[in-house]
From TrEMBL:
It comes from Salarchaeum japonicum. It comes from the Archaea. Keywords: Metal-binding. This is DUF7838 domain-containing protein. Signal peptide: none annotated. Residues 18-69 form the DUF7838 domain. Transmembrane segments: none annotated. One of its GO terms (molecular function) is metal ion binding. It holds the Pfam family DUF7838. InterPro entries: DUF7838 (IPR057160), Rubredoxin_Fe_BS (IPR018527).
């Protein structure tokens, strides 16, 4: 029997089309860079994804398509 925690930690929320890379403007590098997905989870607000720039280490969070770098 699978325990409650084991069922929760499965990758059932991840779809094959979920991107692992994202082209985004990096404010630290001051140019468009390829960001990599650091983590993703579902919240009551929607899908929360953390992205980071491997060049400088800058990171941001995107929830349901709205990212933390938006002004």
């Amino acid at each position: 029997m699978v325990g409650r925690t084991e069922r929760f930690n499965t990758t059932r929320f991840e779809t094959p089309s979920m991107a692992r890379e994202l082209d985004h403007e990096c404010p630290e590098c001051d140019e468009e860079r390829e960001f990599y997905r650091a983590a993703a989870t579902h919240l009551h607000l929607g899908l929360k994804t953390k992205w980071y720039c491997p060049e400088c280490g800058f990171g941001f969070v995107r929830i349901n398509g709205i990212d933390s770098t938006a002004v």
